[in-house]
Amino acid sequence: MGQPPENRIDLLSPLLGSWRTTGEVFEDNGETLAGSIDGFDHYEALGDSFVIHRIDVDIGGDPVRGLEVIGPYDSDEGAFRTRAWDNLGGEQVSNAIVKEDGSMRFGADGASAVLTFADDGSAATVRWERDVGSGAGGRAWMQLTLTRLSSPE
Predict the structure, then answer these.
(1) What share of the chain has pLDDT > 90, as a percent?
(2) Which long-range contacts (C-beta less than 8 Å, at least 24 apart) are formed by 55-63?
(3) pTM (predicted TM-score)
(4) Do 128 and 145 touch, CB atoms closer than 8 A?
(5) Which pLDDT value is given to residue 134?
């Protein structure tokens, strides 16, 4: 069966628990507000190698429900692999890197995000950008605020 994956789930422990999620989503130009985001995210450990992320938000009034599996950690890449599915039929494979400062970087399918925790862990901000190509950087896609509701016991 091969070697078990390297256990680095400890790097994801700041995510664990339930969060109130609010924010905004932008049009392709990165400036025009397309709608609001309101709902909940829940992260829980599954053994020593995975985190399960359940998404239950409304985007612009439309319900978006999803499931993401984060892990295992790939020591060669220095990243967690992620796979996500949603009620709209979407499927995404990406990676997540935990930086030395504790922030997290996500990247997939022409988009990237930076998640930064408040010093006390009670909140986090996430800024998603769409890649505009040609080395021009990104345009704002979503700006989220997560407020901690509970921590794992």
Answers:
(1) 77
(2) 55/86, 57/21, 59/25, 59/35, 60/25, 60/34, 60/35, 60/36, 61/35, 63/87
(3) 0.89
(4) no
(5) 62
C-alpha 65, offset from chain centre: 14
DSSP 73: E
Residues 83 and 71 sit within 8 Å (Cβ to Cβ): no
Question: Which stretches of 48-92 are DSSP H helices?
Answer: none
Tokens of 2: 């091969």
On the question of pLDDT at 96 being above 50, the answer is yes
d(CA 107, CA 127): 12
Distance, CA of 110 to CA of 144 (rounded, Å):
19
**Is 10:20 a contact under the CB 8 Å cutoff?**
no
Is 50 exceeded by the pLDDT of residue 1? no
Exposure letters 78-88 (e unless 16+ CB within 10 A, then b)? ebbbbebeeee
Burial class (CB in 10 A: 0-12, 13-18, 19+), 29: exposed
